[in-house]
Specification:
The protein has about 200 residues and is mainly alpha-helical. The protein contains eight helices and no strands. Helix 2 runs antiparallel to helix 3, helix 2 packs antiparallel against helix 6 and helix 3 runs antiparallel to helix 4.
Length: about 200
Amino acid sequence: MRKQFLIMLLISSLALSGCGYNTLQSTDEQIKASWAEVLNQYKRRADLVPNLVNVVKGFAAQEKEVLMGVTTARSKVGGIQATPELINDTEAFSKFQDAQGELSSALSRLMVVVENYPELKSDTHFRDLQAQLEGTENRITVARNRYIKAVQDYNVTVRSFPSNLTAMAFGFHTKPSFSVDNEQEISSAPVVDFNRPDRDRK
């Protein structure tokens, strides 16, 4: 009886492996790890915003509208519960992406304003924040690309035969990914280097 059970267990294991079950599990775990890193880098950026706004305010307090825009955008980002489960909800994921996009746009507008304040650009504290922001934007791009690749591999498995049958049987569903207006936004981080010549600025 025990021998028959072991044989059945072996056959079941081979069947699941051949139908993509193990691939579904491994790619799902890769998505979770990639998503955790995306959240980590976005949080790092959000944490930089208050200090950045305060430093700019010290030199350019009259730029209230731009400063308020950054603060409001950060507040929207903070108001979204970016949990691991968010990647299983297309609508929630879209709201998360929109909020992060608003913060990116607000920061870009702030960087344009900074160009009008040479003393701010030369401030040591500001330059340190600038370097941290630039590094964080680069890490966000890398993390997003890894997540996009992980989701692509997983979704292909979920949709392909015969692994799609396994996916349906065990409740695996496709997951949302990041979308951008153009491919260049995926491959390059926003420009936050204030020392570049005008021809390199966006």
